[in-house]
Structures are given as structure tokens and as C-alpha cells.
Amino acid sequence: MESFRFENTVYLWTLLLIPVMAGFYWFSQYLSRKKLLKWGDQNLLESLMPLASQSKKNWKFTIFLLAITAIIFVLARPQFGSKLTEINRKGVELMIGLDVSNSMLAEDIQPSRLENAKRAISKLVDELENDKIGLVVFAGDAYIQLPMTTDFGAAKLFLSSVNTQIIPRQGTSIGAAINLAARSFTPEADNSKAIIIITDGENHEEGAIEAAIAAAEKGIVVHTIGMGLVQGAPIPVLTQGGQKDFRKDHEGNVIVSKLNEGLLREIATAGKGIYVRANTANAGVKTLFDEINKMEKQDIEARIYSEYEEQFQYPVALAIFLLVLELIILERKNRWLKKMRILDRL
What we know:
By secondary structure, the chain is an alpha/beta fold. The chain contains eleven helices and 15 strands.
């Protein structure tokens, strides 16, 4: 079945100018006729101007408005295409858990752990095809930033807005992130679900390993990506004067945030996944994607529109015809045709 749409609907608002132009024209004609009647009555004026034709003026203006309307339709780009259809694609479902705690601002991998994590996720999204992806952000609490979707463009858009300020309570609750991610998959999905936790591993809450075990029992694989270096780095902050400083503890000592590889390996083992240390935006992504490709694929239903075909040719042809017709029609009566009484009533 075919459906019709306008690609640039914003131009359709200019159609509101048509009644405005019509009102202005009729008002100007009214004022003009009112002025003429001051010089004499209507019969006298018609006898003095035998070739004048008000109806022809009206027709010319009406045709001109129709031509303008056709041009507006051209600018709005009318299109025909197939209606919404459902297709089945085979893929996997991925929930990514991204750590947005303050320790992710450490710059042991430039420009920061968080920015490198975002770049790594973006690289991973570029590799996906017939899959679904979702995003959970976590610090002291965990929240769904992006529900499961096949729209990779939306995934990148939501990813770009992620920062350490989006979660008020600081900390690193990896267990909460895994539990929330495990509840966010499509209920119909079977053995094609995976969680990827991207963090420096500075866990401040209990239950991360238990959460990974519970996820694995549900058929959900839990992978971990470690962001940062084992030797660690201080956490940058800005002072009130806008100067760069480092976060300190209550005794005034600079806090050094270190990558906790041991915990991340344990979580991956408990979740029947793998652990990868990412030193750059590219490191680890290929290895992880190879693991994802080994997973059993399931049918993923997605709704798409087929490509629309442009139909501007018809309003273009109509606009040209109307403009030519408007030029051909004269505002005055034709002397010879008048004798044949063909256009007397125009």
C-alpha cells in the first residue's frame, strides 16, 4: 500500500499567506472601485471604459494564487512510498552500563576515562548492524539513559549528553547497574543478551559479583571493560576561581583513583563473560565485538519505512501551466472576441 507525505512540512505554513494575499487583493479592489464611483455611476463608467474587465482581473489573480500554491507544494517535496512494514532481523541485545562517577574524570588515559569510554561505546555502535542497544548510567545510583532500541543514531545522541553531573549521588554501584540492565531486556529475548560494564572498578557498594551471577543464571552474559591504569591518577576538579586542582580527602591528601582489575575480572568470570582493559578508545572494542558475534542471534523485529519517491514533477508542471495561463489572459476585453460575444461574461 502507498502512503503520501511531505518531506519539508515547514513550507506548508506559507499556505497561510494565500488567504492573506486574497484578502489584501479584494480589499484593494474595493477601495479602487469606491474611488471610481465618486466620478459617476456604474453604467456611465462602463460606457466610458468598454474594454475594462474586472472579472478578468479576478481570474488572473485567482490563477496566480493557485500557481503560488503549487510552488509551495513543490518546496514541501511531496512523496509517495510504502506504508509502515515489519521486518525480522537476526541480532543480539546489548545493555551497556557506563560509570559516570567522579573517578571517571581521571586523566591517566587522555583526555579522560569517561571520554575514552564514550568513544569506545561509539566505536562499538558503529560495528553493530542487526542488533539492539540500550544504555544504563551509574554512580551511587543507576538509571536508564536509553531504553533498548535499534536506532543507533539515537544511541549516539544520548551518549553525547552523558557526563558526571547527570547522577546526583556519587559512588560506584556496579551491582545496581547490572541488576537494572538485566531487567531492561526485551522479555522475548532468549540466549542473545549481554551486559557490558564500562568502569574503573572503584566499587563502593556490595553485590556486584552476586548481580553478575544472577544475570548469568538468566542467560545474560556480563562483560567488563576497565578504564584507566593500575597505577592510577588524581581526579581533576575546578576551583571557584576556575583553576584546575585535584580532589583531596578530609586530611588534604590528593586522592589517586586506580583501576581495580581484580574486581572487574571477578565480575566478568561470574557473568560468564570476558574482561578487557581499554587504554584507548579502540582498545578492547574489537575483542569484545568478536565475543558478541559468537553469540546466538535471535529474531529482532524492527519497523521501517521503505524509501519514498519524489513527486514534485506534478506541482511543477501545474505551476508552470498556471503562470503561462496567467500571462496569456489580458486584463482588458479583446476587441475582436467581444464582437463575437465569446468573452462577454468574463
